[in-house]
Every structure is written in C-alpha cells, then in structure tokens.
Amino acid sequence: MAVQPIRLFGDPVLRQRAAEVTTFDRELQRLVQDLTDTMLDAPGAGLAAPQIGVSARVFTWYVDGEVGHLINPTLELSQEIQDGLEGCLSLPELTYDCKRAMSVVAQGFNMHGEPVTINGSELLARAIQHETDHLDGILFIDKLDSDARKAAMRQIRESDWFGDGGQPTIKVSPHRTNGFGF
C-alpha cells in the first residue's frame, strides 16, 4: 500500500464530521492499510482517515507494540480522568497537557465488517479518544484550557509548517472522498 501525506491544521477536512462507513470492501481495506502505513512511517500513536483527506469514520492506532483499527466507533468513557502530554500528526511539534478519560470501551467494526470491542486504558484510551475526536472534526487543542489554547495557536502561527501567510497547504486524497474531502 502507500504512505499518504498528512493533512495539517487549517485544512478544512480536519474540521468536518466524517461520514459513517457503510461499505466494507477492498477500498476500505486499502484505506486501513494506508492509514497504518502512514501512521507507522510518521511515526505516530494513531491516525484518523480525515488526516489523509478521507471523510470516513476510520482510524488506526499503534500503542505498546499493538497495531489496530476501528471503524464507526462509539465510546463509553470512565469517570476517572488522566492528564498527560498529547500531540497530533496534524499539528507537528505541538504537545500540551490534555485531560482525557483514564479508560475507554470502544465498539465498532473491523475492516471486514465484523463487530469488535476494544478495552483500553491510559495511552490506548488517550489514542482512541483522540482519533475518535478527529472523526467528529475536533482537535486536541480544542480541549485545552484557554491559556494553553492561546499558546498553542501562537505556536501554530509561528511554525514553519503552517504555510505561507498563515494559509495551510491543502492536498488531494488518493481515496474516494464521497464529496467530503478535497
């Protein structure tokens, strides 16, 4: 399969709710493989389909040596909270403390349409919540307190990757975007 370009903050596809997956076919399997290849190449702990320009409720993760994926996730979050550093492949070189649930029960499907349940805590729970947020058009900086968010936005504006004149670079996806991607 192939490593794909990762969309960066400012690309509109990152702020849209991704479409539910209804067809479990070879194209979906290729998307999961491309997400996995891209995530491992970056390297990252997770990657959601919108981050490569595809509006589909699909993400992958790589935590504690385990690679996985989930399609059309629904989450049950614990009441216990963790606070820890979080970053994002769409926001290079940015890390901030972010509050998340300590554990999660995630339900969804694998790439073959079979139901799966993932129980995760600590880093896996953080990755699953982070990637599910991407599917809803939410970035981790949206969850920061006001002062941290202002600092993050300042850091983004001053970064080399944000683009000329504050305009992000927008790329074209090699996958079907069903009219939702660019």
UniProtKB/TrEMBL annotation:
One of its GO terms (biological process) is translation. Keywords: Hydrolase, Iron, Metal-binding, Protein biosynthesis. InterPro entries: Peptide_deformylase, Peptide_deformylase_sf. Binds 1 Fe(2+) ion. It catalyses: N-terminal N-formyl-L-methionyl-[peptide] + H2O = N-terminal L-methionyl-[peptide] + formate. It is an enzyme of class 3 (hydrolase). Its cofactor is Fe(2+). It holds the Pfam family Pep_deformylase. GO terms for molecular function: metal ion binding; peptide deformylase activity. The active site is at residue 131. Coiled coil: none annotated. Its EC number is 3.5.1.88. Fe cation binds at residues 88, 130, 134. The keyword DNA-binding does not apply. Belongs to the polypeptide deformylase family. Removes the formyl group from the N-terminal Met of newly synthesized proteins. Requires at least a dipeptide for an efficient rate of reaction. N-terminal L-methionine is a prerequisite for activity but the enzyme has broad specificity at other positions. This is Peptide deformylase.
